[in-house]
Amino acid sequence: MSQPVLTYRLGDRQINRIGYGAMQLAGPGVFGPPADEKKALQVLRDAIESGVNHIDTSDFYGPHVTNQLIKKALHPYASDLCIVTKVGAKRDEKGNWLPAFSAEDLTRAVEDNLRNLGVDVLDVVNLRSMFDTHGPAEGPLEAPLEALIKLKDRGLIRHIGLSNVTARQIADAQKMTPVACVQNLYNLAVRHEEVLVDQLAGQNIAWVPFFPLGGFSPLQSGELSEVAQSLNATPMQVALAWLLQRSPNILLIPGTSSPEHLQENLASAKLTLPADALEKLNRIGQKR
């Protein structure tokens, strides 16, 4: 089986399919500063030096912390770097996640992202649905989308994406604006969105799975460990390689605060899974 193509279009850029998710750079619970700022800055610089040109972030990580770290580490940015951010939520003083869908909230969020990242325009802004924080749930997105479209018309946003959304919400959004990407929960074990992944691939729309390695509950299974051992790789490298081979429109944003784990994640791009390994791995999702 041939190795997958490792670039894909996101907005108006052709980017490497393994990027970097900045969420883990904040403190525990994605709240407050990192325990080791120097190490966080090094991870970001190492990512760029290793060829990463897609960073996923949000100003509600921290809040403000990850964007300020990105600016401190990387500004002025490389010309090929695509920074994708999210709006639609905010944090209270205890770190709880709250919906922030009003036009005022969204405008403030975009302005905060611009200021803390140190840019004049945001490459891609994902509207994060908050009808259910645990997964996609139906609900109207027309009003918040209209607010983002107005900000796009002002030249503050280049492209609009969606996060934590249903197929119906994507179709409704496409009646209002082009959708550059969709960011939903998806990984080797959680595969409820199989049909949607393929539908978006047919439309040349990027699918960006969050928690590609399981998130706060890392992926674990006997089959995964067995395949990893047979390929002289780590289980997490195999899980990322599976996503790369699953569909060409999948863009990965594994997060880490460790320079060593960053290099392990990036090395998964060189791992090609043979047919027998894919067969074993596919059974993991079928059991759940």
Task: Describe the structure in your own words.
This protein is of the alpha/beta class. It has one domain (15-219, 249-258): NADP-dependent oxidoreductase domain (TIM Barrel). It is 38% helix and 15% strand. It has 10 helices and 11 strands. The protein has helices spanning 37-49, 65-74, 103-117, 142-153, 167-174, 194-202, 222-230, 235-246, 259-267, 275-286; strands spanning 7-10, 13-16, 20-21, 54-56, 82-87, 89-91, 97-99, 122-128, 157-163, 181-183, 206-207. Strands 3-4-5-8-9-10-11 form a 7-stranded parallel sheet, covered by helices on one side. A hairpin with a 5-residue loop joins strand 6 (89-91) and strand 7. Helix 1 (37-49) crosses helix 2 (65-74) and helix 7 (222-230) crosses helix 8. The two termini are 27 Å apart. The model has no long low-confidence stretch (mean pLDDT 94).
Q: How many strands, what sense, and barrel or not for the largest sheet? A: 7 strands, parallel
SS class: alpha/beta
Q: Low-confidence runs (pLDDT<50, min 5 residues)?
A: none
Q: Mind telling me the CATH class? A: Alpha Beta
Order of helices and strands: EEEHEHEEEHEHEHEHEHHHH
